[in-house]
Amino acid sequence: MPSRRAVLSLVAGGTLSLAGCGGSAEGTERDFGLTTTGTEGVSGQAVGIELTARGVGELTYRVDALPSGWQVTQGDFDPGPTSVREMYPPELLWEPPIGTVTGSFIVEIGSKAAPGEYSLPVEARAGESDETVVSTAVITVEGQTGSPSPDEQDGTPSPQEQDGGPSPQQSTERQSPRGTD
Asked: 4-141 in CATH: which number?
């Protein structure tokens, strides 16, 4: 038989809702939850993972799910954390626990990231309890791998393109074994 928490998690669409389980009127465990949004980007780009947490006392992310070479930093939070445990990944703390906080983590996609989907689990701990919830944001990397040439960055055609010939990247894209999706 599934636990009450598992049933509530399914009913809430993957977020944990502990409605009616106690907590202060200022929103702690009673309305504890976390949601994240996914995003799209290309290799070498920084993208934001937006989140909303309710009844949170502590917030962090799990970098072990990302490929090496990717960096995650703290974006803006409203209201901002009352303190930060300086470790990697850092733990953002709200003391006393806060009703609702919105914010973001900035993810710098590795410069050689292959196209595909990557996950960044974000974890919240409720108020003064040990209750936790994880919401996984999906980062979809699109397009080419590697860094663009200086000519591609400023929009200037390469010498081959000026002569009417395809650039090596255009040629590679046409020969892609993936085909059309």
From this structure: 2.60.40.10
